[in-house]
User: Fold these one by one.
Assistant:
Number 1:
Amino acid sequence: MHQFPALLDRKSGTVTVHQDAVEFIPDARTEGRVLKIALSELEVRTAGENRSFFFLSRKGQPSDSISVEDPALITALSRYGYKEAVNILNHASRRWRKRKLLIGGFLATVAVLLFGLPVLISKLPGNWVSRLVSQETESHLGRILISSVQWTVENEGPSQDKLKALVRFLQDKNPELAALQIYVKLNRTSEVNAYALPGGMLFVNSGLILEAQSIEEILGILGHELGHIQERHVLKNIGGNLGLTAGGLLIGLTISPDAMNWIFRGNSIVSLKHSRDHEREADEKGFEYLKRASVSPHGTVQFLDRMQSRELSGKGGTLLSLFSSHPISEERLQAQKDRVIENSYDAKAKIPVTLEELQMAVRGLEIKP
Ligand SMILES: [Zn+2]
């Protein structure tokens, strides 16, 4: 015997499931009637959004029905051999399976968005990313990243002009770079490093210029950074780091500049770090740019070699940060050496600026330690 709260003619009461019948008995204080239906005559209809309401009536008399809101009623009926209950239970479990599938599908979609999208973004070719992200958005991101670091940047002057001339020189010799708007700037600090930021911003530290031993070394570094820019690596890193947020941004959701500030400020440092794949890609690109410009790639090898041996000898010092954003692994160095051996190149370029001229312009500036 099982009992459930029930309603009949809007009067509350209790329905009892007996061996061979269901019986409605109204609450003592209401003036309702008693209704007893034999299981052999019972008809059960379900209703409600989740089919959680059950209407019990005698066959052919649907208007005279008892309503119950408890799925356990069906289980109880099935225990007493009410055949229809089995169908109702099956139906309910089919619905549950369907819902489980829906929930599973939803979770899978979320997982794809959270984990798949960043991976997808990091693998997209640079020109695809640039098609998805407006120039304006990219420049805005670059400015946010810049505003989050304390850099002393030269906006004009001889050092600036000479760096511009070197970048222009590489752009003129490489069709894929020619159309890019590159804003190269000297960052006054003794730290040996260079950075590529979204929006075509390329920063070269004065420490790196003073450290170089040939103009080919400088061009090799500029080529590598231009590779990062051309492939939109920082943008892809941001996509990877921020997953859905940046993914939403990349697929065209409108995010206010204030919200972007808030989102990206905290991630600027992470975003400047590149993956090993991106480093390799930038090395390959940089090598191609130099080759097309008829610049010897030996400079790049020498620079990487020198930096690595300094790091190994523990004299990293100010160089350490170079390795944090551009880790020079044995693998990277060897790959560059292999490229030099495997490719024929014609190093006859007339480079518009000499190392001496560039270093002289940089020496004239006050350098932050
Ligand atoms: Zn790099």
Number 2:
Amino acid sequence: MIVVIENLIGIIWMDTFKISKSQYIRGLQCPKSLWYFTNQPSLCKDQFNGHNTLFGEGIEVGMLAQNYFKNGITINFDLSRISESTANTKDAVKNGCKVIFEATACTKDGVLSRIDILKKVDSSEYWDLMEVKMSTEIKDHHLDDMAFQRYVFLNSGYKIRKSILMYINNTYVRSGELSLNDLFILKDCTDDVLKRLTEVKKTIERLVKTVNSKDEPNIETGNHCKKPFVCEYNAHCSPKVTKNPVNEIFSSSQKLNWLKDNGIKDLKNIPKDFKMTEREAIAVRSVKKNKVHLNKKEIKNFLNKLIFPVYYLDYETFFPAIPLFDNSKPYQQIPFQYSLHIQNEIFGSVKHIEFLHGEKTDPRPSFVKNLINNCGDIGSIIVYNKAFEARINKELGENFPKWNRKLLSISNRMLDLLLPFRSRMIYHPKMRGSASIKKVLPAFVPELNYNDLEISEGTSASLAYLKFIKNLATDEEKNHIFKDLKKYCALDTYAEVILLKFLFESCSSE
Ligand code: SF4
């Protein structure tokens, strides 16, 4: 809940404070990332972009976690007066407060941490540390986080009993008022935290030394660049040194290591006898010849499954951490929009229908009613990644059993246009190893792409709608959001129309 603020502390207060919790976690993932973060902050310009709504949800989860406990006091935090926050926390303790939110502690040698909830153990001098996460499971880095907090509070004079993680129960189904007892899971992680505690001091010393070094650490990119967080310095650490990088096609570290050891960076230089899967070989051949790979027989088999009229369909969903509606769970994908192009014959004209729920109410009932009406009873329904739309239909059927049969029938009529591209029945060198419609469309139809759209991918669509439904958008913003959402979703289904046409044309040409 307080990561952003701690990041800022990292930038502004390194002279005074040696290390904060988020820097510690960053350094554990990669010391080089921590070095960049503290020594070259300008490299990380976009860290807050596009995530305001997510952070908004983080604040809301934090507030609900505070409501879970009664009569707590909150320690205000001001970047320019950190020592005041630590003193205020001590004062709250002296004054007999039993629950302190955002308690702040700093060791004598400048290691700073805050804890979401510091809770007194009844009739004792001990405290429990409670860390709140938006996550629905305990992750390894949560335990590192908690070990760091425990170290700081212990070394700032607090007696600590348990380290408890408070996270979101994704099996909770809302019914009426939000039930905080059911929404949160409280898990005692003390044993796991204690196992890590012995390493914290040594790790802090190592990381502080790294940060203070004039030279950046010599660390190569690898799997650690993505876990537990996607590192924002990836473009800096692995600048594109060649036109067709081998890692666009190969993911096996064994193959990548062999290629690296042999100085092969570009797909064009892959040796003939290099062992590859059929999918990899198709992509490599396509790049080497700079030619589209086409397996007409397989594509014809795919196209033969089509039944007209054909419906080209795409859903947009949002997934609030806190369930907003009855009969929904935390992070459940709630569909709020679809686009539908309908075509009666091969190469025929298309009619466009769209649905976007414009009220701040549960979109699912109107979504389902309109969908069932618009999709008719016969004809193939083209989707791009059937697993997603079929899963949404399944959940809608479970939530609204009276529509289950019709939703199932829609799913049964679905034909997945992703298949020919993912299985490489057809492959364009410009797909760059991806079958995402965002890569496939401009590869085959360069004049059509998502570049000029304000909303150009699913997560932005979801965050934009969340902003509207949570009353965080003005009327003017709402109009913009809706206009952008309609453009984005319509392009997804229009892309399906164009790509299917392209497949038909490719198979009919000699
Ligand atoms: S991209 Fe990888 S190697 Fe570079 S700083 Fe990030 S985690 Fe470290």
